[in-house]
């Protein structure tokens, strides 16, 4: 199949002798112990443990590529560059050199893996959804790609896998556990310090995680966007949760919503989103992994 361009996703490059050690001190996951054949996720947090951005990480030699939502790139490049200091590396927006394309393959592929070709292009596989293994490719911007943008199909696949991500409306809204980032392989609890690490670790080791992301679906209209409040019927004094991601696909809206676990698992709970043009009733279900576990269940 032809590659399908992802217009809402882009690439940050970090390259140089200290690229890996620098990112090891900044991101939530272990990159020092990551092989070139592995795909990992990671987050960049504030000192208070709130996610400024989330990435798919690919590594090749002294280069690390961070695939993230395009509208977050400029702020993330600026933020990371502030902390480079004397490290021998450079952080830059790679959109002029690389583009991200979508792939959905019926050929069995190992989960969370990367294959590099002789041109420095990467093919990354996520996890299987039925007979299809979705993923993405990192290719030169000059490469020909199908201009029928595949963002909705890619983001629907992420929703089906229970993988949330940070977009502009949700910057600094969530701690990693709030969007299940620890469950899908985005957090290492043994790698050492990074901004916000103490708060993220405290939630992991000292208490029950009370809020998690759940899957939800709704009709095509009114349109729901990330960052909107989610309300629980009978509790009108404050929102119950927040929309983490939202995508339209096959005539429906598919969401990941952050909710209190106890409320989300109530059989009689009715959730909705209030918009200027109406109320959107939600059908809520658990993601395809156990939200009561701690740590990565994707390995």
What spatial form do the alpha-carbon principal axes imply?
Answer: globular
The rounded Rg comes to: 19 Å
Please list the strands of the largest sheet in the order they lie side by side.
Answer: 11-14-13-12-15-16
What do we call the CATH homologous superfamily of the largest domain?
A: Probable tRNA modification gtpase trme, domain 1
How are helices and strands ordered from N to C?
EEHEEEHEEEEEHHEEEEHEE
**Low confidence ranges:** none
Oligomer: single chain
The largest sheet, given as strand count, sense and whether it forms a barrel, is:
6 strands, antiparallel, barrel
CATH level-1 class of the largest domain = Alpha Beta
Domain module tally: 2
CATH topology of the largest domain: Gyrase A, domain 2
What is the count of helical runs? 5
Q: Work out the number of β strands.
A: 16
Q: In terms of structural class, how would the helical and strand content be classed?
A: mainly beta
| Name of the CATH architecture of the largest domain | 2-Layer Sandwich
End-to-end Cα distance, whole Å, is: 29 Å
Structural summary, described in words:
This protein has 299 residues and is mainly beta. The protein has two domains: 4-199, Probable tRNA modification gtpase trme, domain 1 (Gyrase A, domain 2, 2-Layer Sandwich), CATH 3.30.1360; 210-285, Elongation Factor Tu (Ef-tu), domain 3. The chain is built from five helices and 16 strands. The strands form three sheets. Strands 11-14-13-12-15-16 form a six-stranded antiparallel barrel. A five-stranded antiparallel β-sheet has the order 1-7-10-9-8, covered by helices on one side. The longest helix is centred in the middle third of the chain and has 11 residues, at 151-161. The protein is globular. The two termini are 29 Å apart.
């Amino acid at each position: 199949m032809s590659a399908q361009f992802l217009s809402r996703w882009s690439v940050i490059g970090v390259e140089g002798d200290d690229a890996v050690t620098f990112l090891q001190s900044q991101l939530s996951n272990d990159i020092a112990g990551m092989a070139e054949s592995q795909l990992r996720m990671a987050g960049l947090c504030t000192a208070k443990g709130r996610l400024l951005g989330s990435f798919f990480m690919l590594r090749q030699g002294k280069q690390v590529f961070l695939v993230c939502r395009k509208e977050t790139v400029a702020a993330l490049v600026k933020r990371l560059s502030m902390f480079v200091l004397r490290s021998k590396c450079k952080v830059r927006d790679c959109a002029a050199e690389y583009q991200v394309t979508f792939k959905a393959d019926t050929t069995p592929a190992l989960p969370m893996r990367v294959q590099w070709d002789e041109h420095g292009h990467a093919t990354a596989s996520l996890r299987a959804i039925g007979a299809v293994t979705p993923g993405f490719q990192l290719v030169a911007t000059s490469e020909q790609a199908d201009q029928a943008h595949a963002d909705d199909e890619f983001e629907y696949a992420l929703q089906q896998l229970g993988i949330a991500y940070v977009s502009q409306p949700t910057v600094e809204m969530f701690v990693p556990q709030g969007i299940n980032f620890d469950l899908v392989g985005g957090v290492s609890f043994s790698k050492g310090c990074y901004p916000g690490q103490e708060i993220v670790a405290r939630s992991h080791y000292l208490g029950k995680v009370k809020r998690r992301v759940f899957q939800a679906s709704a009709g095509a209209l009114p349109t729901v966007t990330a960052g909107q409040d989610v309300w629980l019927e009978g509790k009108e004094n404050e929102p119950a949760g927040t929309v983490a991601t939202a995508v339209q696909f096959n005539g429906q809206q598919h969401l990941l919503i952050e909710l209190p676990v106890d409320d989300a698992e109530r059989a009689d709970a009715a959730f909705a989103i209030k918009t200027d043009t109406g109320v959107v009733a939600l059908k809520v279900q658990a993601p395809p992994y156990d939200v009561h576990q701690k740590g990565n269940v994707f390995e």
